[in-house]
């Protein structure tokens, strides 16, 4: 069976203190407890967890600990190792014009271990050098193709305090004084060449929530449609797709053409000496030559042609592997002919909006107005050729010349049908939809790269979800892993495409879906997995009380601090405890002998309440005697 797992990390002596914080140098932090570090090697013992617990191509593990225990430090160590490895192999530019240049982390000394196809690999970063080997002694990392034989990492963290580039100044190398290494990893335009992306996008630590919402809505429309059409399920447990409302975005198209003239044309004119007018005309002619239907005119055709010009230039500038066809065609009358041919062949996320325009021009189904699912379903089924792929659904959605509003239906408490704009959902409801669509979007894009020319595809993905339960009601936390696994399984991806999921969590509901063997427990930078296992034999399917008490290092109890103190002090008062601490508590809460029974009635635990009632009754009886 083909395997893929991130096994663990090991910070080494001499590593920047800002990087390792409270982690211990030369300590191996393992994510799967059937691996151990011995004699400078990772030794694998028999696995107790079934291989297909979640799916044959999906493995899942977690890091748990109190705030400040080192959870995020371990995740950031993984990110830094991948960043430096990418820099040493790809160089600063990572092969693209528009992407932020890669910058190495200063004084990084650490190791990352992973298993792929039953072979264990080690990546070592040592200051300004690296080594990448497998257990058989083979050496990797000689070129960029090797990097794509690694794995792709998707990191999702919606915390406001995470990944603020201004907090990484101590890690800047001398000649990169004004650049922060982490900023290059929020990339949007590198074609997934650097094998890691951080979500959501941040600029100097700030998330542009309006941009993120717009992107998330576009992805959500596609996944609501896909799961409804091909799997007859909802993309959200409480909401179903209802309708679209679309409106021509004249200003948006106009701004894109201005952007192309200002930023893309000068770059391309350096390669081919052409005026703007000639370049615009050549791009249009190259597209019309390939598709006869482009000669058909409808009320929105001109906006579509303008968008094709913008997007063709945008892709040429941002993705160097398409520039080859632009540079090496000096003998052709139209320098864009071969470029257009390759753009048509490409079926990755890069050309998605081009395909949307082409599908629309071939069959201009959409006009300004409202479209209900009952109308859309037969259209989507007919045009998607029964190929159960998210790509086809995306191609058939309203093209980018339109602004699209998305409406969902739901059942009210009285069983009546309600309708709501997706932007009017609660923060928790939107977070569930948006985070799931972001994960699926990136996994889908990485998988479809295999269809692109001149690209060696990734066949493994690591998904790191940091405290993804933020905003979630306990019921959403309870179904989180089940929902994610179910959606990934329905993406229609090859089972040879493997996924390893790491969750950093504070939720006992999430933890109850993960076996003890797959959990790293941390306390003050130290692994305490063996100590926790002595108290909590198994986490998978364990009850909430045991998980809270033993897995999350609660110091006193699994109930709130106020109720815990009051119950303890009530017991002391009933037993005639006269300590000064107890008397101080009575002054603060104004508890006296006459109102003890009111406090006892507040206690929700029946067992504790009965004990307090019994003790109070005994004491009253003794006093009366």
Short description:
Pfam families: AAA_21. With 625 residues, the protein is of the alpha/beta class. Helices cover 41% and strands 17% of the residues.
How are the SSEs ordered, and which strands pair?
Layout (H helix, E strand, L loop, with lengths): L3 E8 L5 H4 L8 E2 L4 E4 L2 E4 L13 E8 L5 H20 L18 E8 L2 E8 L2 E6 L9 H4 L4 E5 L39 E4 L9 H23 L8 E9 L1 H22 L4 H15 L10 H18 L1 H8 L9 H9 L6 H11 L6 E4 H11 L6 H7 L5 E10 L5 E5 L5 H22 L11 E7 L7 H16 L8 E7 L3 H4 L7 E5 L2 E2 L1 H7 L8 H8 L9 H14 L5 H10 L6 H7 L3 H19 L1
Parallel strand pairs: 5-16, 5-17, 9-10, 9-15, 15-16
Antiparallel strand pairs: 1-2, 1-6, 3-4, 6-7, 7-8, 11-12, 11-13, 13-14, 17-18
Summarize the biggest pleated sheet: 7 strands, mixed
Low-pLDDT windows of residues = 578-586, 620-625
Tally the beta strands.
18
Shape: globular
Instruction: Give the mean pLDDT.
Output: 85
Per DSSP, what share of the residues sits in E-state strands of 2 or more residues? Answer: 15-25%
Overall number of structural domains: 3
- Per DSSP, the total helix count is 21
Structural class: alpha/beta
Strand ordering within the main sheet: 10-9-15-16-5-17-18
Organism: Bacteroides uniformis
Domain ATPase AAA-type core: 372-512
Protein name: ATPase AAA-type core domain-containing protein
Pfam families: AAA_21
List keywords for this structure.
single chain; 625 residues; alpha/beta; 3 domains; 5-stranded antiparallel sheet; 21 helices; 41% helix; P-loop_NTPase; ATPase_AAA_core; ATPase AAA-type core domain-containing protein
């Amino acid at each position: 069976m083909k395997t893929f797992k991130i096994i663990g990390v090991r910070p080494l002596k001499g590593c920047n203190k800002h990087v390792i914080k409270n982690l211990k140098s030369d300590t191996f932090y393992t994510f799967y407890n059937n691996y151990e570090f011995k004699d400078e090697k990772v030794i694998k013992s028999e696995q107790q967890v079934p291989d297909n617990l979640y799916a044959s191509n999906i493995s899942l593990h977690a890091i748990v600990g109190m705030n400040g225990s080192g959870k995020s430090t371990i995740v950031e160590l993984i990110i830094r190792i991948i960043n430096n490895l990418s820099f040493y192999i790809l160089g600063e530019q990572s092969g693209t014009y528009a992407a932020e240049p890669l910058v190495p982390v200063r004084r990084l000394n650490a190791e990352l271990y992973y298993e792929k196809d039953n072979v264990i690999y080690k990546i070592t970063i040592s200051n300004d050098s690296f080594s990448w080997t497998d257990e058989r002694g083979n050496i990797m990392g000689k070129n960029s193709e090797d990097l794509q034989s690694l794995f792709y990492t998707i990191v999702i963290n919606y915390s406001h305090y995470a990944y603020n580039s201004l907090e990484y100044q101590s890690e800047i190398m001398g000649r990169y004084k004004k650049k922060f290494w982490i900023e290059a990893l929020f990339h949007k335009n590198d074609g997934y060449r650097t094998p890691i992306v951080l979500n959501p996008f941040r600029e100097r630590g700030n998330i542009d929530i309006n941009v993120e919402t717009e992107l998330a809505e576009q992805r959500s429309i596609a996944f609501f449609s896909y799961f409804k059409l091909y799997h007859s399920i909802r993309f959200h447990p409480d909401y179903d797709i209802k309708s679209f409302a679309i409106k021509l975005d004249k200003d948006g198209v106009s701004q894109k053409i201005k952007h192309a003239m200002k930023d893309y044309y000068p770059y391309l004119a350096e390669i081919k000496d052409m005026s703007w007018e000639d370049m615009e005309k050549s791009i249009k002619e190259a597209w019309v030559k390939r598709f006869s239907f482009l000669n058909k005119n409808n009320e929105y055709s001109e906006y579509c042609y303008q968008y094709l010009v913008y997007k063709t230039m945008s892709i040429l500038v941002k993705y160097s592997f398409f520039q080859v066809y632009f540079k090496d065609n000096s003998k052709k009358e139209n320098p864009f002919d071969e470029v257009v041919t390759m753009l048509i062949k490409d079926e990755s996320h890069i050309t998605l909006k081009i395909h949307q325009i082409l599908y629309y021009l071939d069959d201009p189904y959409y006009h300004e107005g409202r479209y209900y699912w009952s109308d859309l379903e037969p259209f989507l089924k007919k045009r998607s050729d029964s190929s159960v792929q998210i790509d086809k659904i995306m191609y058939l959605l309203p093209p980018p010349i339109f602004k699209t509003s998305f409406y969902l239906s739901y059942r009210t408490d009285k069983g009546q049908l309600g309708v709501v704009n997706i932007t009017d959902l609660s923060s928790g409801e939107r977070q569930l939809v948006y985070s799931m669509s972001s994960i699926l979007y990136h996994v889908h894009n990485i998988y479809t790269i295999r269809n692109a020319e001149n690209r060696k595809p990734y066949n493994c993905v690591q998904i790191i979800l940091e405290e993804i339960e933020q905003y979630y009601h306990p019921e959403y936390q309870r179904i989180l892993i089940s929902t994610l696994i179910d959606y990934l399984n329905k993406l229609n991806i090859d089972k040879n495409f493997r996924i390893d999921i790491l969750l950093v969590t504070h939720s006992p509901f999430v933890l109850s879906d993960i076996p003890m063997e797959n959990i790293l427990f941390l306390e003050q930078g130290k692994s305490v997995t063996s100590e926790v296992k002595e108290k909590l034999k198994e986490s998978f399917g364990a009850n909430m009380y045991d998980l809270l008490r033993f897995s999350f290092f609660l110091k006193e109890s699994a109930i709130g601090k106020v109720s815990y103190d009051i119950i303890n002090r009530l017991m002391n008062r009933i037993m005639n405890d006269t300590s000064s601490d107890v008397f101080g508590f009575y002054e603060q809460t104004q508890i006296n002998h006459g109102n003890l029974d009111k406090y006892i009635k507040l206690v929700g635990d029946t067992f504790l309440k009965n004990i307090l009632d019994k003790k109070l009754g005994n004491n009253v009886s003794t006093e009366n005697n």
